[in-house]
Amino acid sequence: WDLRSILSYETLHSNGRLTETAVGIYGYTARPQTTPALPSRRKRQIFGHDGRFSIVGQDFLLNYPFSAAVKLSTGCSGTLVGDRHVLTAAHCVHDGKNYVKGAQKLRVGFLKPKQRDSPNPASATNASNAHPSPPDKMKFQWIRAKRTHVPKGWIKGNGNDIGMDYDYALLELKKAHKRRHMKLGVSPPAKQLPGRRVQFSGYDNDRPGQLVYRFCRAGEETPDLLYQHCDAQPGASGSGIYARMWDRRRRRWERKVIGVFSGHQWVDRDGALQEFNVAVRVTPLKYAQICYWIKGNYVDCREG
């Protein structure tokens, strides 16, 4: 396969127009690919005891990092990685052959408090003394996507071993969201992750309207994929996998998105099949590509 053609990309505009962009790669030597057998994406998986946490209350939901998690109108999750940009999984907008239903009019949902009627102060005081306050009620505020970028590696490779390695996409919103976004980072080897831990938040379908957080130990890896046993259900696809990374220039720890949650996969280990949930790693080339989609130039894409 040709790495340049795989990293070339297609852009779907909100008016239905499609454009293709070719890329050039200079000064980079590709490593051999070792994608495991049976790379099909299946139902997300719960491993033993369900270790997920539902995030409740405005104090958490409206503050970073949980406020960086968003919901897509196609049923997936995503993560804010720019003032107008959302990172998600490619299969959330494109099935490998065609754009999914609703992709052209894609919307991104942000949790915000529901407006309440202002009660009489005296009656409100009496009511609060008689009954504890119910949990904060939230609703989604939706913003339309202006453009959707999908790598050709996903579009061309969905029927073979390469496709899942490129299961990521970037959405550009029609207006700024005014929330703090996460920084993008290059995925280090799993053994170099602090505590070897990864984490992500998404909108799992079995907990409608709730933001669900989980963390777990990173497991096996290939140059493009990271395997783990973080519990997840459909709807969590597209969530940004993040970890605490040491920023040597700023000399501080920062959360950075280093992958995109894709789905469930069987992996051949020493002749025995084992099941994992899998994330697409942000490699140096993928970082450069996604950063270019966000910044519009490569000069501002030197940090990873």
Task: Provide a descriptive summary of the structure in words.
- It is built from five helices and 16 strands.
- It has a single domain (3-14, 34-113, 135-295), classed as Thrombin, subunit H (Beta Barrel).
- The protein has helices at residues 3-7, 58-61, 121-130, 152-157, 284-295; strands at residues 9-13, 18-21, 53-55, 69-72, 77-80, 85-88, 107-113, 138-151, 169-173, 183-184, 197-202, 211-221, 225-228, 240-247, 252-269, 272-281.
- The protein is globular, with a radius of gyration of 20 Å.
- The longest helix is centred in the C-terminal third of the chain and has 12 residues, at 284-295.
- A hairpin with a 4-residue loop joins β1 and β2 (18-21).
Q: Choose one word for the global shape.
A: globular
List segments where confidence is low: pLDDT < 50 over at least 5 consecutive residues: 32-42, 127-134
How would you spell out the order of helices and strands? HEEEHEEEEHEHEEEEEEEEH
Strand segment count:
16
Global structural class: mainly beta
Distance between the termini: 26 Å
Task: Fill in the CATH topology.
Answer: Thrombin, subunit H
Indicate the mean pLDDT.
Answer: 84
Strand content: 35-45%
Helix content: 10-25%
Largest sheet: 8 strands, mixed
The CATH architecture category equals: Beta Barrel
CATH class group = Mainly Beta
If helices are DSSP runs of H or I spanning 4 or more residues, what is the number of helices?
A: 5
